[in-house]
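Action item from last week, closing it out:
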Amino acid sequence: MNRFYHKAILSRPLFGISLSVILLASIISIAVHPSPAEAFTGNCANIPVKNFYAAALEDSTLGKREKAPSGTVLTTYVKETLGYMKMHGINSIRVPFYWEAYVNNPTVFLAEMDLVAKTAQANGMCVVFANFHYHTTSYWNLDGGRGFPSVVVDEFPKKADYKSTAGPFWEKFLSNNIMVNGKKVWDYQWDFLSKAINKVKGYNSVAGFEILNEPHLFAKSQYDKLGNYHTYMAKKIRAITDKKVFFDRETAWGFVRDPTLEYKIKPIGVSKLVYGAQLYAVPTTGSTGLKMLNNFKTWSTQWGTEMFIVEWAADNKSEAITFLKAFKDRGMGWSYHSWKKKASGLGGALYDSDSTAPTADLLDLEAAMKTVY
């Protein structure tokens, strides 16, 4: 019998409990738990993303800040977590990784990426590795930021707030107008990304790579620049692997996004592209969320790309059903944000383990998936 089904029973003393009660509890436990997600076979890079029902894997080693104590290879955590994900119907994972974590300890970082890809393959799950930042960097010590290492941002001094600090950096970064150790910043970033990609590209479990999560724009003039950056990185990725290339929707700072300019961010001249966007507004009839979702569908169809909702979350089962029906009807894959014990900020909390009960968000998602798929 699967150990996941019996964690509650095995963790309690047996004194005073009859064997028949234990057996009855075991039967009930098996009956109410879900069947594991059907395993993928073959190369995940060739499986349509509409079949990906994913969750973001919070991996502390891949999320280390540059100056934090070194991480370790999280063998037990990764193996246990992917087992529980699959048991609850999640068949894919989106894996945020941070450039700072690589700088923190390159050897451990690459070993952790390898562990995740290998464990996913053993479980018949697909993986999207996502190059992440949150508020750019920890160097400025602003708003819990992490992502870009200090050597890339240290010429941009910390100012009164995030916008005034990060704005000058992003203008120069998106213009490829920063020199780092004698290299242009895009080339310097590619040195890092190529090492990460080469480490795991040989696994069939790896579906593809996100160029950069939530690139920050501070002016409409930067849509063209973001497109140039996406094209540069997408071509670099395509030169070393046939995996899918995910490019993500921008986050606007100090101005309102302009949907008429969104086409400019698409990479040019690269195959197997996937457009990624967040959606936290529930797509009910007549809502902003539904309008956004329909825009995503229209744009991805016009561009000839697949569509992947890289982040979403629901407050209850009813909302989860609404989201999933909308995704299914439009042929979109998705990644719930995220697999963690407690919700914080945007997103929910999907979690189960040998020592905990499944979270309410996980049970709501599981029930919604059974209703919709």
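Closing note: Residues 1-33 form one domain.
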